[in-house]
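for the record, two folds in this file. i put them one after another cuz i was lazy. first one right below, seq on top, structure tokens after. the second one comes after a little note so u can tell where it starts
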Amino acid sequence: MIKAQNDRSIQGVKVARAAPAINHLLYADDVLMFFKATKNSCAVVHNIVQKFGTMTGLWMNHQKSEIQFSPNISHHGGNILAKIINCRHVDHLSKYLGGFIDGPNTARRNASLILDNMQKKLAGWKAKLLSQAARTTLIKAVVSAIPIYHLQHTWLNRSQANKCDATMRKFFWGQWEETKAPPMISWTRLCAQKREGGLGFRQMSKLSEALLAKQGWRILTLERSLVSQIFMGKYRSSVENYNLTPKTSASPLWKKICQASKIVTEHMGWRVGNGEKINLYDSKWIPPDSHNHNFTTLGELMIPGGYWDREKVNQVYTGRNRSFILDTVVSRTQVEDKRIWTLTCNGEFNVKKAYQVLSTEIPRQRQYSCKWNRLWQLPLPQKIIHFWWKNLNAGLPLRDTLVRRGYKIPTTCPFGCDTPETEIHIFKQCQFAKRVWFASRWNIRTEHIGNQSMSNWIRQLLNDGHPAGQNHYHNLILPLLTICWSIYTQRNEILFQQGKADVMECLHRAYRVLDALQHTKTLPTQDPFFKCDIPRRQRRDVDRLEDPHSHHLNLFCQWTQDSVKRKKVFGIFRQHTDNPQPVCYLVTDWDQDKRLGLLRNIRNFLQSYGTESSTSITINIPDTLIANFMASNSIVNISHVTTTIARRGLSLPGL
């Protein structure tokens, strides 16, 4: 296609005079072609496609291929040209990778497509059978990831983003057709980071803005990329001093990119290279303290070789700015200056970081402050962790709370007390709760806790940490969290499943969780499997290989197979007196080629030992082809390693 355009056989499309001509775009398994609608151009393109199919065996699918013409071509003329290429003539292109790329209101149709996909995905799950912790995982891992691809080239307005948020919010709180569970915690709070007291959900409006900001970053910094050349060729006049101001006649996509790129332009800076791109009066650089000079770029203040010219720097900068300039490292390899994003360590734009900045939540009231990471790191089931996350955020649907929100329900305690059901009552002051605490293994009297509620006590424990030791901390906080959760579960069974206020049932539920945790801790003493450390690659085993009285290491290779376990084992051994010592093992699948397995094991050995030792090494290989090949070819330029053909009949020790 490029050669045909250079020969002027076809003529590409330009979106602006300063933009490059485009005649094709290559994607994963599709090609978009752009050319002038003439019979000669169509014939040339048809010949190119046929020639490509002849050489590669990849032919154009005429049933899936489409051609679209500009309004200047009549429908009859378009049909004639379409027959030359042998593909369908359409008014609008079909969807590509599930998204609309052509036609009216593509952004609105893609937004509807995103919402439909989210609703279909949620409808396919048996949400009623999932706990809130499980629904949280599905939302974060699946649902919120659905729109990411489409948001690379489209956007969501506020109304569309709110609909997507509402879909996820209803799924999280269990608000389907026949049930309407009250949302006890705001969506903004749910979308906060976990270390800030949220669940880390994504707000679609902020996610859309962050992804569009990434496109703005590419346009501003990747000057040689095609997307930058096209947009800057058409809208360069809209970019002035790092401010993107679109004209009224600009495309909707460019307007949205300009609107979202504020987070990019406000945090741009320079990484100094050779100084040729950095203007001294650039708004993203340190302004000169003196104007009595003729220098225009930062490179003029440098000496060839990558050093600052102190006399020139003194003419431009004074005081702290001068010290800062002289302390700045200059490239000694003439690397070009580079625009960076100052919010990341490596200077590259990061969508995750941009989203975090855009969605920074206003600090909550002090009563909700807590070291949330300590809560999430506790070795408890997620359903208990989520229960306490809601409780610490004042999000439990207790009767007194629901009445204050307008629900017309009784406020009395479900366990038979005449007192309104509040958090401090149900976990501490209720007679049922008192019996549970006192009958537990720890014989706790709630009167000794003080005037604070159970949630405040837990919050204090999380903030203070474990000054008395990790074991004491876990032995205290884990039973408290588990028993409170069991009391609340017993309360729900009374309200919704006609349960009874059974103290022992409540305690046994908590004991099952705590005993399972204790059993997990004792597993290493019961089963050797759980004593295994994380496999780590040993760079060198001195005791096994090196002999202080020998300057030569004689090794031999062998392999065996286990037909029961369907495994092959390749080993390298050192002949030590009468007993071979294993040096390196490689366990592979049954279908592993023998020669390839031997070579892989030798490579692993050389990477971990052979390249670091001055001792001469001889490797005896039980395969003539491999031994001759390695003997005649340099083994990664290691002169102290030689190979020989081993004698037959060696067995793999230890197997």
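(here's the note) second protein begins now
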Amino acid sequence: MKSFMRRRFVSNHYHKDLRRKLQCLTQGSMSVQNYYEEMKLAMTRANVKEGHKVTMTRFIGGLKKEIADEVELQHYMEIEDLLHKVIQVERQLNSKSSSKFTSSSSSSWRSNWKNNKVATNPKEDVKAKYSNAPSKGVGNIASQCPNKRAMVTRDNGEIESESSSDDEIPPLEDRSDVEAAEPVLLAYNLTKVVTWSNVNIIFILGTT
């Protein structure tokens, strides 16, 4: 009855299609187990009945080349025995591939780490060095320099260097008791130039 219904309602093209798919079936990206199940299903749909040797030949022909090459060296009698050996070969190849990938990744990581490693000298400290002109020292700010000097400009145009502690105006002499032939204008003009942090600030300290 099934054969009659199949011949009546299923076209010949459909059967040809199923057989063609079975002939072209390969493992591809599938696992061995999934490939075997797909092959058995395709054989059932195409109503293919064949001997065990033919089925085993078909099965091996669709395997990946590296697996098929290993299986051909094995001894097997039945399709179930063949399937078991093929699964073992697949596991071994996957294990080797995984080990190679791990080793390659580790080597690549170490190589990149060595290339990117910055060579540093622990004895050298990174310091900000400040150089001030008066003391020619390193690491001092001009305003904190112990050898700070002030430049003084006199009336006659002479420039003298004095200690930073001499901030007071020199005392003025009282010459009111000295007679002069003619009015004399006494003028005290002292211009002090202070160097602080590389900035020249001019102070007019006093004028009489």
